[in-house]
């Protein structure tokens, strides 16, 4: 029996599998499709879920007229950019050192980093709020960035230390023979190879920073320094049950995440697979 005949016999099974996967994909996409569709409906049409939208953009106009959307977007982008830069910088170097050393001291250090992921965030809210008052950093974006950095470094170190084991040591030995120091070797040779791990951290942590509601609500003044998620909350309180503009602002807040995921999904998958196999 030839390979082509085997492929022909298996083809119906693959078709059924593809149909099942397509149906599952549509089920997962349905909330997103409904969100976009509902944002295009007028108030009178909103409670007719099966009625197709008429591409009504008045809801989006209300969002731009009645909210400080660009200010909230700028604050959110600032938080994500600063936090990710520090997180990647620190956790990549920490993960590199921990992953390349098998000494008991470094293993203990690895568990110290992991302990930061065990402590519930809720238990530290009151002390962190009092610390913010002591430092006179009320409603400070920088203070919120520092909190996110402290919470993100343990996860980033775990991802990098697992991924670094898939990078051959021979690359570092060759660089050392050529006269490169440890620091130059890391940034010129090793760090570019950690791009899948960096993509994994980028996507997963950006979703966390972007969608976090409790921390901006506690540590920022939502009237003067709003983030996107607190702006949506305030807009919902002000609008009541006028769902069209509320869905529209949710769409505008979701679009950057969708674009980011489309461009970084391959790195996310590579990072997860490499960490699982090599870690």
From TrEMBL:
Subcellular location, record wording: Cell membrane
Main location: membrane
Gene3D superfamilies noted in UniProt: MetI-like
InterPro entries, A to Z: MetI-like, MetI-like_sf
Membrane topology qualifier: Multi-pass membrane protein
TM region positions: 12-36, 76-96, 108-129, 141-164, 185-210, 243-263
Domain of life: Bacteria
CDD domains: TM_PBP2 (cd06261)
Keyword line: Cell membrane, Membrane, Transmembrane, Transmembrane helix, Transport
PROSITE patterns the UniProt entry points to: ABC_TM1
Chain ranges of the ABC transmembrane type-1 domain: 73-264
PANTHER family from the UniProt entry: ABC TRANSPORTER PERMEASE PROTEIN MG189-RELATED-RELATED, LACTOSE TRANSPORT SYSTEM PERMEASE PROTEIN LACG
Similarity comment: family membership: Belongs to the binding-protein-dependent transport system permease family.
Protein name: ABC transporter permease subunit
Organism from which the protein derives: Paenibacillus plantarum
């Amino acid at each position: 029996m030839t390979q082509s005949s085997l492929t022909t016999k298996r083809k119906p099974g693959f078709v059924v599998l593809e149909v099942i996967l397509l149906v599952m994909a549509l089920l997962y996409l349905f909330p997103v499709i409904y969100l976009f569709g509902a944002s295009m409906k007028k108030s009178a049409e909103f409670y007719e879920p099966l009625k197709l939208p008429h591409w009504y953009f008045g809801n989006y106009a209300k969002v731009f007229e009645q909210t400080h959307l660009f200010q909230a977007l700028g604050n959110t982008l600032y938080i994500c950019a600063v936090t990710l830069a520090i997180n990647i910088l620190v956790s990549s170097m920490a993960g590199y050192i921990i992953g390349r050393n098998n000494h008991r001291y470094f293993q203990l250090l690895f568990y110290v980093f992991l302990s930061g992921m065990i402590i519930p965030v809720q238990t530290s809210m009151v002390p962190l709020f009092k610390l913010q008052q002591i430092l006179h950093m009320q409603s400070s974006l920088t203070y919120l960035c520092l909190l996110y950095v402290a919470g993100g470094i343990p996860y980033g170190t775990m991802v990098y230390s697992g991924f670094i084991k898939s990078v051959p040591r021979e690359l570092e030995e060759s660089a050392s023979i050529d006269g490169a120091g440890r620091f130059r070797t890391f940034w010129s040779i090793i760090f570019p190879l950690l791009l899948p791990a960096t993509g994994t951290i980028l996507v997963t942590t950006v979703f966390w920073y972007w969608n976090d509601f409790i921390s901006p609500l506690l540590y920022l003044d939502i009237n003067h320094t709003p983030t996107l998620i607190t702006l949506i909350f305030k807009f919902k309180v002000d609008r009541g049950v006028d769902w069209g503009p509320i869905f529209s602002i949710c769409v505008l807040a979701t679009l950057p995440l969708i674009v980011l995921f489309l461009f970084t999904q391959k790195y996310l998958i590579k990072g997860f697979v490499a960490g699982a196999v090599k870690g």
